[in-house]
Amino acid sequence: MPAMRIFNLDHRLALGVGHDRAADVEKASDGRFGADVQAVYERWDEFAGWARAYDGPGELAVEPGRLGPPVPRPPQVFAIGLNYRDHAAEAGLALPERPLVFTKFPASITGPHGNIARPAGSVDFEVELVAVIGRRAERVPAARAWEHVAGLTAGQDLSERELQSAGPTPQFSLGKSFAGFAPIGPALVTVDEFADPDDIAIGCDVNGEAMQRGRTADMIFTIPQLVEHLSAVLPLLPGDLIFTGTPKGVGIARRPPRLLQVGDELTTRIEGIGEMRHRFTHPALRASL
User: Domain residues for 11?
Assistant: First the structure.
């Protein structure tokens, strides 16, 4: 079956056609599916069947400035800490026996290009592969987990380390949820586009300098294992996001630390998905959504 990628193009649902073109889904489907990007995940199986059979034109240019987050209003956002062996080693921590789970609040979601207001404190980068749920998952075994994943996208788990570690108990979710601190995109790509969805190259640069380079094969807990673990506790809903962890090279672990400053440009790349670019601005300027 043909692979598929979808975009949030000018705040409308678009289906990738060819290398850099897309079709407006509402128009191409004669209104069968609406323009609301988030709504498609509630009808993912039906939509995927239509999209795979679509053989019409792509009348829209896929241009960076026109792209928004492919999942703009996720019901739930899960994030996994310390999920790469090399990242655990650079942090000097033992490998976890079970996934370490926190959340990024949905208001932190932003698109794959634009400005992000840098708050005061120590702002760090964490490139992550993000899994998007396409079918309700409740007590799903790992062997069937991919059936519940609509696709994959690129993400950054941006973090303000001082608030994150503020005591007496850490504030992981709050420190990682400033406006714009969960950029995702540029597309959602179905799993069948990857030769091995458990082994994908990921990385990020700051001002053109390589910071993180890794492969998802280094994950301690795979995406199917994460779906099994999370869905044993609560239902995963269509449109939910799972930020799956980051490889070594984060700014806080460098000597000296390399934290993001006003004016820095962060470039994020994931094999088979594409590239995101963000510039960090004075905190008086709000994140561009």
Answer: 5-62
